[in-house]
Write a structure and sequence with these properties.
By secondary structure, this protein is of the alpha+beta class. The chain has helices spanning about 5-20, 185-190, 200-205, 210-219; strands spanning about 35, 45, 50, 80-85, 100-105, 110-115, 120-125, 130-135, 140-145, 150-155, 160-165, 170-175, 185. It folds into 2 domains: about 55-65 and about 75-180, Jelly Rolls; about 185-219, no CATH class. It comes from Microthlaspi erraticum.
Length: about 220
Amino acid sequence: MPMKSISFLASLSLLALTFQFAIAADPSQLQDFCVAVNSPVNGVYVNGKFCKDPALATANDFYFTGLGQPKPTNNMLGSAVTFGNVDNVPGLNTLGLSFARADFAVNGLVPPHYHPRASEAVLAAEGTLLVGFVTSDQRLFMKTLNAGDAFVFPQGLIHFAANVGHVPAVIIAALSSQNPGTIFVADNVFGSNPPITPALLAKAFQLNITTIMELQAKF
């Protein structure tokens, strides 16, 4: 067989072997569950957390209360989010899953952000919401949701949600990681520590330096 063909087949084989790891979010569990603990006593270290001895696990390790309770939304954005992840539901460790409730005042907004480690499925539980995401080639996918409608945000893509109705709104969300991470675009760009050089941001956003510095002061 020609050398080029062997090289191609070797490369293809390597890609096939690594593809499953490239597309994975959280590692698949190797046991029924791994309740997270913060101490190595009677535990083993798996996926960023120590695992509690399975014999010591209880139903409370898999339990969360609070998704039925609205949070105050009297803030600048008019929204508030309640998270259930591995930090407050330790039984989620290694399961590749977390969840959230987002409350919206009238005109409330969860601003553009993304989750580096998770896709997200949202369900409009109450009210009317405008949701959407932007792809890597700047395509906008946007939809108005009424109660009972659902929408999906692909992993790593910037997305947002806003209450466009006349009453408060609620979203219930499920994410494909025990710790999805949340990066708010404006906060990270204009509120980094230390700040990004204003001249760089001015050039990137085609704004004057004074405007950039005013934005940085807000964040």
